[in-house]
Write a structure and sequence with these properties.
It contains 6 helices and 11 strands. By secondary structure, it is α+β, with helices and mostly antiparallel strands. It binds a DNA duplex (16 and 16 nucleotides) through helix 5.
DNA sequence: AATTGTACCTGTCAGC
DNA sequence: TGCTGACAGGTACAAT
């Protein structure tokens, strides 16, 4: 479900609601999302702790807690956090409930059950698999056009595959990959090593601009995504290719192609994207 | 070493 | 109406 702009929006929506709040109780309805420690230890460790800070890295949410603990969450396809009053009805697929002060609750809802929770000492954050291997944050100064160019050199893989690789750049998923490639006017199956200097410059600009615009519109709500206040995003109204197979290209009027690459739906304009 | 395919799980929607 | 199969904002691990 959520890519960088959605996770950023969720983070921003949760900061004013949960930071400073104490976890009085943790209710586990389904324990399959908890990777470590054992669910009962997870529950015990969290009770009495306070949410001190919340950060995003790639598509991960990092909850910093008292006791030098960090709760690392990946929402995968359908994970959601809902900040609600205790009296609100419990939705189907509510797997975890963090009971907070003033009859408020932070609930984790995840129909497909793919999301992950790791509760670890903050000192171990740099050892957590997945998190530790992430490439640069695309909206930080760590991400440069020179660095992007180096990552592309001598690679035969298709550019879309590279954009989805979290070790190269953190946070891009299937929607934004397609939108970025449309923006840069690059065919998704182009070999990385064959991109021209101009194409690489457009790609760099596309990554920064499309992700920034996604955040400006508070993410893309196509089927499941909502933020911590259950508000939908607005970027779905600005998508140029994703989900628009068969429709005319906004730039040239040709029909948008929907194909499949590496098991993922892939949308592009066969005229604009060469 | 680098890339691709498969598994994980539930819901929805198109086509019969 | 069902039923069936394909597909869905992702990643870990197995297989090439």
């Amino acid at each position: 479900m959520p890519e960088l702009p959605e996770v950023e929006t969720i983070k921003n929506s949760l900061i004013p609601t949960i930071i400073g709040q104490k976890i009085n109780q943790v209710i586990i309805n389904y324990n399959g999302n908890i990777r470590q420690p054992e669910p009962l230890v997870f529950q015990k460790l969290l009770e009495g702790k306070v949410f001190l800070d919340l950060q995003r890295r790639g598509k991960y949410l990092l909850f910093f807690l008292s006791g030098d603990l960090a709760m690392v969450v990946h929402l995968r396809m359908t994970g959601q956090f809902h900040y609600l009053k205790r009296k609100e009805p419990i939705k189907k697929h509510t797997h975890l409930i963090f009971c907070l002060s003033h009859k408020n609750e932070l609930r984790y809802v995840d129909p497909r059950k793919f999301g992950t929770f790791d509760l670890i000492p903050q000192a171990d954050l740099h050892t957590l698999k997945g998190l530790k291997d992430l490439g640069p944050e695309p909206l930080s100064s760590d991400f440069t056009s020179t660095g992007l160019k180096e990552a592309l050199q001598n690679k035969k893989r298709p550019i879309k595959s590279l954009l989805l690789d979290q070790k190269i750049i953190a946070g891009i998923g299937n929607i934004y990959a397609d939108e970025i490639l449309f923006h840069a006017q690059i065919h998704p199956e182009t070999n990385c090593g064959k991109l021209t200097h101009e194409q690489i410059q457009r790609l760099y600009q596309g990554i920064v601009q499309v992700l920034t615009l996604g955040i400006t519109h508070r993410g893309t709500s196509i089927r499941d995504y909502v933020d911590g206040e259950q508000e939908q995003g607005g970027f779905q109204n600005f998508l140029q290719v994703y989900g628009r197979g068969g429709e005319p290209c906004s730039r040239c009027g040709a029909v948008i192609i929907k194909g499949k690459m590496m098991g993922r739906g892939t949308h592009y304009c066969s005229i604009c994207q060469q």
